[in-house]
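Can't paste images in this forum, so I'm doing it all in text. The chain is below; anyone willing to post the predicted structure tokens underneath?
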Amino acid sequence: MRLSESPRSIWARRTTHAAIAGALVLALATTPSADAGRTAFPSDPGLTSYPTDALGRPLISNTGQAYLDPRLPVRSRVQDLLGRMTLEEKVGQMTQAERGAVSDDPTLVTAWRLGSVLSGGGSVPTPNTPQAWADMVDRFQAAALRTRLQIPLLYGVDSVHGHGNLLGATVFPHNIGLGSTRDPRLVERIEHVVAEETRATGPQWAFAPCVCVARDTRWGRTYESFAEDPGLVTRFASAIEGFQGTRLTDVDRVLATAKHYAGDGDTEFDTAAGDYTIDQGVTVTNRHDFARIDLAPYQAAVRRHDAGTVMPSFSSVDWTEDGIGNPVKMHANRELVTDVLKGRLGFDGFVISDWEGIHQIPGDWPTQVRTGVNAGIDMFMEPFSALQFETTLLDEVRAGRVSQARLDDAVRRILAKKFELGLFEKPYTDRTHLAKVGSAEHRALAREAVAKSQVLLKNTGGLLPLRKDAKVYVAGRNADDMGNQAGGWTLSWQGASGQHRLPGNTILDGIRQVAPDAQVTYSKDGSAPTAGSDIAVVVVGETPYAEGFGDVGGPEWAFDPEDGGVPREAKSLDLQAVDQTVIDKVCGAIAKCVVLVVSGRPQVIPPAQLSTIDALVASWLPGSQGEGVADVLFGQRPFTGKLSHTWPRSADQEPINIGDRDYDPLYRFGWGLRTAVSR
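Text version of the structure:
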């Protein structure tokens, strides 16, 4: 986005397909002509036809080209292919468009020689099924294989807590909960499942994991961070192993993305542009602290775990060594992208920009394009401006403002990953694991992760675990709402409230499933009679959001069709009034009270209210398997989680992090009570 834009206009462009002039499309698009199972493309110089498979899709025509010889080293194949490419073909490989820009006319993939296509949040085929996803990706792949050199397409998607765009995929806890498990091996297993569900449906590339270090929980992306402590985040960088495995050619693995490089969780409040307060703001720091806090997880991601791609942050860095007031956007930061990431850290994958990330670079459009390329970005996420990007980059290269060497470096990196993924040998979706999407086995792993992510903050008198035959009064708006417990990046960019938003079990469902002998009364607002109940379980917390729309003090949002034009609640570290009311009502009426906080960050609970709560649990955003919460409530599994982020006493303590000089939170980083398993 451009700096003058508000987040509302950004959102409109993120979800509205750009109009493409019909005359321009006709001028650029190649028109295939059928010829007994072969397809002719007279607009491709020197190429007359391609063989097709039984479905009529073009196959790669191997007539002895070295780059199509799988026996050769990847480096040799890349060099051979690069030597055959025109300038236009190289620029095409550096360009990524959104599916919405090409879905009505996949020949644009061919005409623009696109290297990649992505699905943004909520950008899905109709119907939104595993089969339809695979068909869609293969349709775009077929278009890519109609180009002169038949370079396969990479398809990327935000599989940040599961293949969240896909209805029926397994939705895991967000990273803030996974960090609380203190179990990197568990997270590797999770990301392996996410990779399997993602690749089985077509995409070969996940824009995950986020290895940001969230230092201020007012940030709307706090839940995407494993921890506030760089050492713990560094341990969880092993999530990359779960995505990529040891061989990217395996049909249950995908290319991973370490994001957002670097410092996005360390920006200062009120430094963001537009209506945001902290997201996409400025990290004001010195080089030593930046390396210690913000850069450390990327060193592990690159050197230890061989991340295939890295995505720069929307944020800026302002070095204190040369005085405050001259921040540099990460997408324009040659020092950090080229000198540090590619140079000192030895990153040999490719750098993918964030959504229109170069649009925030100061200057006119040609300046933004050449600055981003020269900074070291290799592929550009230009969802609805792909053609404009290609045209401008071509002009910049021809004018000598971007070198051929820089272009060749970018394309080498991109092609290498395509060869490593085996796309030249098997370009179309391998659907072997399609039936495993959302399978019982995968949901069992999600349930385990939910249970291990729960953090028991308070347990007066050993109230938890509960008896399985207890008389339980369940209340609160997050007790029976799948949308709220899944959070953002679920079926849409921002996510949405709704009990039946996705398959799975709510926390209320889980209570009934895990404790079938319990006498359960449910009342969302606590208005049902409480007489006869001996335990209250009140489930409160946040409603969904993503990115800057989750910033405390940030913009309210009413553009999702599910919102009916009603703005979402203002984001706050304090419990919402509706939550405080139901706690007061229910905990005041029932002798023993358990409060579960379902949220993407700690929520401040006033001391007077905390005194009425016997047991307090940080449930985070558990995803589709709410029965994992019930497992620890009733002693099916023990509480073992530990806080991945400090729980403040009040909102004005933020930013507060372990190691601060005056560190006096309500619950410390690493806090978590344990319970035994009930027999």
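The chain is about 30% helix and 10% strand. Residues 543 and 641 are 23 Å apart (CA to CA).
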